[in-house]
Amino acid sequence: MKHRNLKWPHLKALHELYENESTNARILEHPFVKNLKEDKRLIALKPGITRTLVAKPGYRAYYEQHLHNSYLRYYQFLTQHHLDLSARQQFDEFDLDAFIFIADNKEELRERLSTIRHFSSLVFREKGSKFLEKHPGICKIIYQLLEVQGFPDQDPKNNQWRFVVDHPNPRIIVLCENLANLKRPWIAREHQLELWYVGGNNTTILEQIGADKLTLSIVYCCDWDLAGLRIYCRIKQIFSSKGKSISILLPPDVGDAIPISSQDHNSLWLPELPLSGLDADVFTASELSLITQLIARNKWIEEESQDLLSLLQKNGLITI
Q1: Interaxial angle between packed helices 93-104 and 68-80, expressed in degrees from 0 to 180 and rounded to the nearest 10
Q2: DSSP β-bridge partners for residue 43
Q3: Rounded to whole angstroms, how far apart are CA atoms 313 and 249?
Q4: How confident is the model over 9-33, as pLDDT tens digits?
Q5: What whole-number distance in Å separates Cα of residue 79 and Cα of residue 88?
Q6: Are strands 43-45 and 247-248 parallel, antiparallel or unpaired?
Q7: In whole angstroms, what is the distance from residue 40 CA to residue 92 CA?
Q8: Where do the DSSP E strands lie in the chain?
Q9: CA distance to 17, 120, 142, 238, 284, per residue, from 124 (Å)
Q10: Would you list the domain boundaries of the chain?
Q11: Which helix or strand (DSSP H or E) is residue 296 part of?
């Protein structure tokens, strides 16, 4: 999943360009906006006025295709929940998607509310477990959305969440190690996908999966690191006991792999063990080849770096 890393002020200003064909907002330093000016040539500085950006031919069509739906979704959410719409708000699209996820899963999160660091690593995984401690303004919005006074000092005893993007007539169930795809539920619903969160130790919810779900294709989408692949081994065993075969979504190659020592990444390979201790019988030849390459290069592939629809298509499961 590729993000533009636009903040709310950028989204507001780009919408103003769409509505009024000009804006005085100072957004040109952002790489995405700079690309619109210098490479795509869809916006420009107004002649003689260095602060004003103006829309050029083609900008309107580009905005409607790539930005309009996002802006409307965020605007409607902020308005519905009485959150500040001003350009002073510096939350970005990651934060906005997280806010929407929190609101959509309010009761589940409230019932099993965890410590601030656990919550941050779960919902704001891209930014790390200490992110919320450093951003009290974001915490304030979370408290408002959940209608709580703060985070507890200890995690609840039962820390098994049920986060699901349901579909009345799904074609495929995608089990997700991380929440990134569940924060964008409209994509899943548009393509008849049902998403289940099964990260960490959250796999026991699969024990109660209904018989009707077992008739569908079930695939696992994860980080290709030791932790993600260990979860796959556990999930594969759970479904095997039910007489159901599942598969893992295979990235096309190691091109998106990043160093294992990436910031906030703690799952390390165990090169002293064959296949880092993973059960080779669980994986296909292609999967074993990728794992072997990743271990040899000391790299991993992050789930969020993969576009879910493209991944499903490349694995022969859907046609876009």
Answers
A1: 50
A2: 55
A3: 10
A4: 999 999 999 999 999 999 999 999 9
A5: 15
A6: unpaired
A7: 23
A8: 22-23, 43-45, 53-55, 164-165, 172-176, 193-197, 217-221, 247-248, 258-259, 299-300
A9: 30, 5, 12, 28, 32
A10: 8-74, 91-159, 164-314
A11: helix 285-297
Residue spans of alpha helices (H) in 124-184: 131-134, 136-146
Q: Beta strands 193-197 and 164-165: pairing type?
A: antiparallel
C-beta contacts of 109-112 below 8 A and 24+ residues apart: 109/146, 109/161, 110/146, 110/147, 110/148, 112/156, 112/158, 112/159, 112/160, 112/161
Q: What is the pLDDT of residues 61-114, one digit of tens each?
A: 999 999 999 999 999 999 999 998 886 788 999 999 999 999 999 999 998 898
Q: Which DSSP category does 153 fall into?
A: S
Choices 1.20.120.450, 1.10.10.10, 3.30.930.10, 3.40.1360.10: CATH for 164-314: 3.40.1360.10
Q: Report the distance separating Cα 248 and Cα 233, nearest Å.
A: 10
Confidence (pTM): 0.85
Q: Count the neighbouring beta carbons within 10 Å of the beta carbon of residue 70.
A: 17
3-state secondary structure of 173: strand
pLDDT, tens digit, 9 for 90 and up, residues 143-182: 999 999 999 987 766 567 889 999 999 999 999 999 999 9
